[in-house]
Every structure is written in structure tokens, then in C-alpha cells.
Amino acid sequence: CCARRRGYAKLSVSGGATVVRVDQAQKAGEPLTHAELSMVEDQWKKVTALGAETVGVLLFKHIFADTPQAIDLFKFKAQFKTDGYESPMLKAHAKKVVGTVGMAVDGIRELDKLVPTLKELGLRHAGYGVLPAHYDLVGAAFLKTLRDGLQDAFTPDAELAWTKVWGAVAAAMKQGAAKKDELSPEEVTLVEETWEQVEGLGAETVGVILFKNIFEIAPEAKNLFSFKNEENLYESPKLKAHGANVVNHVGIAVAHLHDLSKIAPTLQELGKKHGKRYGVQPAH
């Protein structure tokens, strides 16, 4: 065991992209077969025998070799600049990552039971700035790490099996990350209560205040509106009517916060109209 661990620690980071054959890519989304399940379990025992820290550090070497800017996503980035891969914080985090993969492998035959935990992990990582595309980068680095550790045992069939494993883990975490922008029941209630106070001021009044703030932040935005050249702009009937209309649409959205799917088509159509007819861009 110890001799193998020392040998693994001396392995250099392998170069080149991870290549999956076309027929493998087509099968990557399929469930793991019984043979693949057994292979993954057996190979993971060999990998973990090398030490979670050793495996984790090599994983991060691959991640940063492929995507150097990824270092900015981690709390240990400052320590990494001075200590490199000897950083205690990096090593601790690396062990956690390997532990998470191990948890997935241990429960691979009943992955559904792990999905809630993986979703929660994905939601947490979304808060750190992790994006869906990052899972593909880490997945590629993970396969390279397995290749370094398993060497000849990392056959095309093994690569396919591990691609399926990572795909299942990443899919669950991405689902969790998607909930980052969802409102909690408490937040929905808070929005509804505060919107009642806003509505009490009157849609026209709130609309005018809204446009005052828009034009203060971005004066050039006036060019998007038909009332841009009117004198006494904030007394303009057109501006007041448009402002009230905007506020009323927000009110409709607030009223449907418990089930936005009911008005999503209307909002999407409104977005398309503003883009095509009025030149409104996503940044606006």
C-alpha cells in the first residue's frame, strides 16, 4: 500500500485532453450496467488506497493545469500563491472532494438516495460562483486523475463507466445549483408584504420614481422610449402611463410568486417584444 502511494505521489500530471469515443459518448448518458457498477467499486478501492489527500491534490493539479483561472473560485487561493500544492487548505479541500466522490461510489447502486445531498452540495457551490460549465472541467480532470492512478486498468470501458458516474453526480449538483435563484417561502411572503406597501403609493407614483432612478443610473436609456424628447419629462402623460404599466406587470408577477410558471409564457413574450421592437438588451 505504502509503496504504491509513494509511486502515485510521484506521478506527473498527464497532458492532453480526455478523449471519449463517439460510441462511448452515446452511451455516457445510459445507466451503469451491473458489470460497470462492480468495476467502479473495485477500482475506487484501489484509488482510495493511495490516500484521499494524494488523489485530491493530483485532481487539483489537473484542474489548474487545464483551467488556471479556476483558482479564483477557492478560499485557499491566497495560500496557494505561497504554498502551492503543499497548501494545507488545498489539501483539506482536496480530501473533501475525494470524500464526496467516495460517498457517491458507496451509494452508486442506490444513487437516488444520495440525490438530495448532492443537490444541497450543488446549491452551496453555486453560492461560491461555480457555474454549470465548471462541472465538465472538473469531470475531465477527474478522469485524468483516475487514469494516472489506475494506469493500464483505466481501459476505455472503465473510462465510460466513470464518465457515467461523474455525469450522475454532476447532474444532481447542477439541479441543486439551479435552485440558487429560487425564492424561499419566507422570501415570497416578505416580497408580498412589502409590495402591498409599495402599491399603496399608487402605480403612477411608483412608476415615475422608477423611471427617475433608471435615467439617473443610465441617462442614455431615455433613447429607448417614445417620450424621450418631451418637456417636463416626469410630468409626461406617456411616461406616467408607461410607468404605471411597468408597475402593474411587476404586481402581476408578485401575485404569482407561488407559481411563476403560470405567467412565464406571458413574461417571455413580453421580453421578446421588448428585444425585437424596442432594442432592449439583456444588460438593460
UniProtKB/TrEMBL annotation:
Q: Which Pfam families match?
A: Globin (PF00042)
**Top-level taxon in the UniProt lineage:** Eukaryota
Q: Which UniProt keywords apply?
A: Heme, Iron, Metal-binding, Oxygen transport, Transport
Annotated ranges, domain Globin: 31-178, 182-284
| CDD domains given in the database record | Mb-like
Molecular-function GO terms, alphabetical = heme binding; metal ion binding; oxygen binding; oxygen carrier activity
- Which residues constitute the signal peptide according to the record? none
PROSITE patterns on file? GLOBIN (PS01033)
Note the InterPro entries from the entry: Globin (IPR000971), Globin-like_OT (IPR050532), Globin-like_sf (IPR009050), Globin/Proto (IPR012292), Mb-like_M (IPR044399)
Q: Does the keyword Iron apply?
A: yes
PANTHER family registered for this protein in UniProt: BLR2807 PROTEIN, GEO09476P1
Query: To which protein family does this belong?
Result: Belongs to the globin family.
UniProt name for this protein: Globin domain-containing protein
Q: Which species is the source of this protein?
A: Strombidinopsis acuminata
What lineage does the source organism belong to? Eukaryota, Sar, Alveolata, Ciliophora, Intramacronucleata
